[in-house]
Design brief:
Elements (H helix, E strand, L loop, with lengths): L2 H11 L18 H16 L11 E5 L1 H14 L9 E5 L11 H5 L8 H13 L5 H6 L5 H6 L8
Parallel strand pairs: 1-2
Helix pairs in contact: 2-3
Amino acid sequence: SHENICRYIARESNSVVVSVGYRLAPEHKYPAAYEDCLNATVYFMKNAEHYGVDPANTAVCGDSAGGNLAAAVSQTLAGRSDLPSLRAQVLIYPGLQALDFSLPSYQQNRGVPLLFRERATFYMLQYLDGNALHMQDALEGSRVPPDMRLKYRKWVSPD
């Protein structure tokens, strides 16, 4: 689905683009996709010179769920001393939080195609545990324990 854009980026930026075909939910629950992306990135960085790439010029990129994975891989690699630092991370409409689906961004974009609020919630639940039985609870925020909501209020709140 992303071959054309990857080819365009490679051509226009005169760079090597590696697109990871990671395992998908609901058949493969978290952390399968994350592990696939992390393993592919680490392998590429350790073998980048074989592809004519300076490993210090490696960036990760993703859109939607791939943006979530790119962010997670970036955070994981930030603590690795056996690899060079990533040059950049590019996140295109990433799904980055699943604590509160009633935050302003979800409310403002609830009816914007392609990912309506309900659909985004459904896919996030599929990714996390493959179970969308509690979708209404997730939409209402009642699946998040009060102590967790308080703990993360500084980062995840309408304020």
